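To illustrate the input format used throughout this study, we show a single complete record. The first block contains the structure-token representation of the backbone; no residue identities are included at this stage. The design step must infer an amino acid for every position from geometry alone.
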């Protein structure tokens, strides 16, 4: 602990630092590796959904990366998560653990056993959470019994969308239909199609492409043409960070590519808005 009663080290910085310049000064003085300092700096200064929501009023989040971050933040803050279950029961819980890669989340049991039983009998639930001054709603599918760190809990599938509202009384929200974000990619003389399936606020993206294309970490895909039914085509670069082989829901094999989107702030914002939609 420091003389002021606050924790030292990385945890203390995360609690005390509220602006990027001050963060940089404090991080330089800490006995941490360069990689750890960089990771902590990104965590402290990267944009988040709650700050964006404060300016837009309502958001529909379809970015899996941002959904994972948001739910993890709720778990860290130990926010109350509620769901209405029949017959007129209130399930009061907290998020214990979020696993974005495998696509599930774990919640604590409530103190009301009939509500727990009703939750485990449901096919899907709609959860609500007041988090950092904003209200969020999201679903959890296929609830079942599980355990986390030796504690009995309930496991649900991760939501594919989260609705955020800055204020109460916003009325019924018209959720727009989801349209595919496709792209025309080029690597040297090879041209091939792909799909953009995720983009975060800090420009981390995920592509899905033909598994026969020989992509690897470090490859830069320049002038990728982004196409969406509701906007004019635009161009970005993708810097490949990793490539994994996956099986799609239809049984087809594909390459899943983690990448950094490179482009002007205006172009990046155009891409972000296809996954984080302003409903205000």
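Output of the design step:
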């Amino acid at each position: 602990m420091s003389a002021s009663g606050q924790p030292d080290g990385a945890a203390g910085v995360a609690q005390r630092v509220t602006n990027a310049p001050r963060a940089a000064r404090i991080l330089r003085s800490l006995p941490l590796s360069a990689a750890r300092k960089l990771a902590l700096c990104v965590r402290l200064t990267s944009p988040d959904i709650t700050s964006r929501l404060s300016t837009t009023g309502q958001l529909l989040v379809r970015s899996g990366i941002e959904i994972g971050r948001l739910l993890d933040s709720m778990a860290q803050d130990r926010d109350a998560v509620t769901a209405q279950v029949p017959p007129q029961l209130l399930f009061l819980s907290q998020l214990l653990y979020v696993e974005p890669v495998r696509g599930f989340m774990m919640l604590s049991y409530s103190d009301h056993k009939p509500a727990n039983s009703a939750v485990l009998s449901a096919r899907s639930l709609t959860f609500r959470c007041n988090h950092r001054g904003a209200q969020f709603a999201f679903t959890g599918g296929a609830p079942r019994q599980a355990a986390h760190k030796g504690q009995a809990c309930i496991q649900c599938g991760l939501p594919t969308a989260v609705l955020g509202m800055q204020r109460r009384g916003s009325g019924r929200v018209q959720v727009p239909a989801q349209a595919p974000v496709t792209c025309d990619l080029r690597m040297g003389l090879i041209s091939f199609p792909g799909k953009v399936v995720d983009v975060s606020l800090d420009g981390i993206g995920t592509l899905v492409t033909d598994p026969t294309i020989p992509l690897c970490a470090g490859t830069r895909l320049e002038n990728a043409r982004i196409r969406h039914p509701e906007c004019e085509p635009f161009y970005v670069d993708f810097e490949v960070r990793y490539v994994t082989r996956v099986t799609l829901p239809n049984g087809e094999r594909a390459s899943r590519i983690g990448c950094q989107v490179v482009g002007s702030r205006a172009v990046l914002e155009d891409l972000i808005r296809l996954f984080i939609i302003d409903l205000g």
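Structural context for interpreting the output: Helices lie at 9-16, 20-29, 34-45, 49-56, 64-77, 113-121, 265-272. Residues 64-77 form the longest helix (14 residues).
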